[in-house]
Write a structure and sequence with these properties.
This protein has one helix spanning about 10-35, and strands at about 45-55, 55-65, 75-80. With about 80 residues, it is α+β, with helices and mostly antiparallel strands. The longest helix has 26 residues, at about 10-35.
Length: about 80
């Protein structure tokens, strides 16, 4: 039986798992940095996730966001597939 590239256990699943692990680690790191600055969920802060296409492939851009407050522009973590 031949397994398709997107089948569970295939290369696509392996890459997706690695990407998901990197995103989870980046969210944890960003949460620590946000908390240190007082940007907490209790104050209305959340993590905004944005998929960005780059020359190196897709990336996930994570940054703090608030409904009424301006977020620090330099507090951004980018997770790439590569």
């Amino acid at each position: 039986m031949t397994r398709s590239p997107g089948a569970p256990g295939g290369e696509t699943a392996r890459i997706a798992g690695l990407f998901a692990a990197r995103i989870a680690a980046a969210k944890s790191e960003l949460t620590v940095e946000m908390n240190a600055l007082g940007l907490t969920p209790g104050q209305g802060w959340r993590i905004h996730e944005e998929i960005v296409g780059t020359a190196d492939g897709p990336s996930m851009r994570l940054r703090p966001i608030h409904r009424t407050e301006d977020a620090p522009e330099t507090l951004v973590i980018v997770v790439s597939l590569r």
